[in-house]
Amino acid sequence: MADRVTIFDTTLRDGEQSPGISLDAAEKLEIAEQLARLGVDVLEAGFPVASHGDFEAVQVIARSIEGPVICGLSRTHLGDVDRCWEAVSPAERARIHVFISTSPSHMEHMLKMDEVQVLAETRSGVSRAREHTDDVEFSPQDATRTPLDFMIEVLQAAVDSGATTLNIPDTVGYGIPWDFGALIQYVRREVKGDYITSTHCHNDLGLATANSLAGIQAGARQVEVCVNGLGERAGNAALEEVVMALRIRPDQFPGIEVGINTEELARASRLVARLTGYPVQYNKAVVGRNAFAHESGIHQHGVLADSGTYEIIDAAAVGQTGRQIVLGKHSGRHAFAETLERMGLRIQGDALNAAFQRFKELADRKVTLTDADLEAIVAEELGGKVDDGFELESLDVRGGTVGTPMAAVVLVCDGAKIEASAEGDGMIDAACKAIKSATGIDGALTDFNVSSVTEGVDALGDVIVQFDSGGIKVSGRGLSTDVVEASARAFLSAVNKVVRVRRRQDQVRQPEVTP
Ligand code: KIV
Ligand code: ZN
To answer: Tell me: domain 3-247, CATH 3.30.70.20, correct?
Structure first.
């Protein structure tokens, strides 16, 4: 009988904790929709007590995403557990993930608790979670640096209090495959009861995927992973790597099955990269743009004769085909909507009209549009949309090696036109300054990333910015055949988000906490 490994995706929780990533509820929902299409079993949507925004995002996802179990992370405090349940309970199937640190270093320097207190916290947090739901996961944070006897005592207390999944986090990426595998085996042997063992491996030594696979070989039946290997510091095990290793080497994992629609992997990777602003390295396994590229003549010869000579993965099986769509500047709204539908991008009403409008503008300037282009256009429209926000009507720039670069913008807000111009260190800087002056929103660009959606000189430039306006940290994305225009659009979309966050400032604020 098939032995199923649960794919627990934590892109929206641990992945979102990567430095500089800040997703709003709409962006999280967009990623959650793609994760559901991908077929993840459990979707950790966030840490509800961390902020009002996180709570709201988890709740929106719990209300609207069908398919995966929706999970929220919680400390052991009873108030945290209740708040977490409030966020995830609208889901068809909901899970509470309770954690507490168990290593001497964390207990002394962070928790200021002794073993007796940690055990008591474990019991009370898990029991409280179990009052809400019978799907409760427990994690002893920094497990790989926790003395074995104490870890087993804590895990047993968690199971006795009602935990149904025991997750073993290698929080600091300290594990080595055979030693991590042995740890999983030890837990399974020593902790009595009915539970599933899970891995959560960080990549500080570049071993997160290897450690997760060692865990599965040792009997873990859940793996915690992130798309593109996002996560704290060097990241978590990459979903696409773990899944493809299981699929490509059944001889090493006899009978193991995962329920992932692998054809959706490349799209999930592109979407996450675009919304988080974390580009995918070119030679990244499975989803990198070079994962199926062959440079040397000998390799090219081999692959042309038979792709199996140098490829162990079928590019189409992971969605890496770069298909060209037949839409162009003469295509109508109907064909546009149908193509999006076929690609699984379900948008309607005003969002569809706005995306179609952008598509027409860009199709006028670009000869061919690919699936990836279309995804980027839709993502830009959905990500940047704010009711009553500022829209870019026109941008005029002057640059070059002579004279001071300058930009003039015309924005529209509530039907009124606002004009402003500014000088800058370059045309992009001038455009951003002009937008600041027109909108009255000040702040600092903390990151700026430009990439092309596809290859070639006519590729769409895709710009992602991170913007900090008085402590409100947002990202913005813009797309155009012209990189200065793409930058201005990205900056304006970030400014619009600041406007939206400020509008919500009346709402109750909660203290920021992170796991
Ligand atoms: O790395 C870690 O320990 C975590 C826990 C909260 C599971 O992310
Ligand atoms: Zn983690």
So the answer is: no
Residue-wise pLDDT for 345-373, tens only, equals 777 888 888 888 888 888 887 666 777 78
CA dist list (Å): 173 to 119, 140, 201, 214: 24, 14, 6, 14
The distance from CA 357 to its chain's CA centroid, rounded to whole angstroms, is 27
The alpha-carbon radius of gyration of the chain (Å, integer) is 24
Q: Which residue's alpha carbon is at the smallest distance from atom 6 of ligand 1?
A: 515
The number of the ligand nearest the C-alpha atom of 515 reads: 1
Asked whether this chain's domains 293-381 and 391-508 adopt the same fold, the reply is no
508, 343, 466: which is closest to 24 by C-alpha? Answer: 466
Amino acid letter at 318? Answer: V
Residue 471: pLDDT band with limits 50, 70, 90: confident
The domain made up of 293-381 has a fold known as Recoverin; domain 1 (1.10.238)
141 Cβ below 6 A of ligand 1: yes
**CB contact at 8 A, 477 and 272:** no
Does 212 or 310 have the greater pLDDT score? 212
Ligand 1 nearest-atom number relative to CA 142: 3
Give CA–CA dist 507/51, Å, rounded. 11
Paired tokens of 390 = 């500022």
Please tell me the total number of residues recorded for the chain in this structure.
515
Pick the atom of ligand 1 nearest to 73's CA: 6
Tell the CATH superfamily of the 391-508 domain.
Answer: Alpha-isopropylmalate synthase LeuA, regulatory domain (3.30.160.270)
Closest ligand to C-alpha of residue 143 is 1
pLDDT higher than 90, residue 150: yes
H or E element, residue 504? none
If 0-12 CB within 10 Å is exposed, 13-18 middle and 19+ buried, where does residue 364 land?
exposed
Most confident of 233-237, 295-299, 453-457: 233-237
Q: Is the pLDDT of residue 11 over 80?
A: yes
Q: Is 99 in the pocket of ligand 1 (CB under 6 A)?
A: yes
Per-residue CA distances from 57 to 64, 328, 350 (Å): 11, 36, 22
pLDDT in tens, 245-254: 999 999 999 9
pLDDT tens by residue, 367-378:
667 777 887 788
The C-alpha atoms of residue 355 and residue 348 are separated, in whole angstroms, by 10
17, 84, 141: residue to mutate for ligand 1 pocket, most atoms within 8 A of CB:
141
